[in-house]
Structures are given as structure tokens and as C-alpha cells.
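USER: I would love a firmer grasp of how sequence relates to backbone shape in proteins. This is the protein in question:
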Amino acid sequence: MREKFRGGGGEALADHEIVEMLLFYSIPRINTNETAHRLIDRFGGLKGLLAAKRHELTAVPGIGEQSADLVGLLAELYRRADREADQEPTQFKDLDEVGRYLVSQLDGLPRERVLVLLLSADHRLITTHKISEGSVNKSNVDIRQIMEYAIMAKATHIVLAHNHPDPILTPSEADESVSFALLHAATVMGINLWEHVLVSDGKYYFILRDLLDRTRYSSPGSTKFNFKTGKKK
């Protein structure tokens, strides 16, 4: 297998052969072909394998703690490499582009994480702050801290975002409450809360847009926004 890889590179190997070869390093002196096939079949391919949680991996016959560690490290390496490609200054043309960007940042994380994107008037990304990282189903959001970050960065627009580790693309009551609180604070300070984006299972959901459509919420100043441009109507 090593000779095949060294002679033809990664393209010379099938998906299960790549996994088989990797497992050599966590399960020495054992034929890992059958285990590699189990992993591919269980998770539907390489993408599903890298997104698998530890307990799901160790439930597969032949996969122990060391092999689960190896897959977890590879998944994290892939995520970090993917994020490096997004570290250049980014300008968003609309919210769907923001949503896709946030999927690349948050999807597949094992714990809930809250980010705030600070944007200029022309929707260029100034900086991103991690606000909190909680348990699987709970994170705390400090509204005052978010506003301090926005003021210090002289941001015109902000986007709040968080992920649900479980594949549930539905906001909780707490998610909606935070959206209202941040909308109120941002409007008072003359800053546009462009959206609160929920990420789960490779998809994104616009919490604020749905809230404003359903509740016709009234806050200080104008709360009617053009969601494509991020500007007040």
C-alpha cells in the first residue's frame, strides 16, 4: 500500500484504501482493510467519516480510542486548513454568501460556538470574535461585550452566528431572545444587526429575518432592513 501511494500519490488510492492506510498508524500489525470498509459504509464516505463524533467512531468494530483520536485530529486539521483559505479580507455581497461562509466556520464542531462578524459599511469583514463556546446545547452570549467589540472596530454591520452540533436547524427560545436583545442594543447604538445565523448539518438559517417577519418587532429607530444589502429601509 505504501509503495502504491509513493508511486502514484493519493490519486492512486481509492477512498477505502486511504482510510486503510491511515489506520495502519493506529492499529499496527493488523489488516485494516475490513475496518476501513466498515467506516466508509457506516458514514457514507470520507466527508461523513470526518464529521463523525467520537462515540460514533468507537461504536464501529475495530475502532478504538487511538483510531478515534486519529480521525478527530484529521477532521480538525481539515477544518483549520479550510479556514485558512478564508482569512483574506472578505466582502459579502448578500446574506447567502455570509451563510455559506459561516457553514465553513461552524459546521461539524462537536460543541456549540458563538461568533460575531464585524463588517464595514460596504460589508467587508473587519474581524471575527469568538463570543463563547458552551456545552453541546448551551452557550452564553454577552450583549455588552459584542457591542464593545463593534464600537472598537468601528463596525457598521454585525452578524451573530452559532451552530447546533445536533442536526437541528431550528432556533431555540434562547436563540430568539438573544436576537431581540442584540437587535435592540445595536439599533440604539446606530449599528445594524444584519442577521443572526444558525448553522447545522451543512445548512444555515436566518433567525432574525424569520423573527421580524413573524413578530413585526418594534425597536428604537428603524428595524426594517433590506436583507440583501444589510441597509435600513
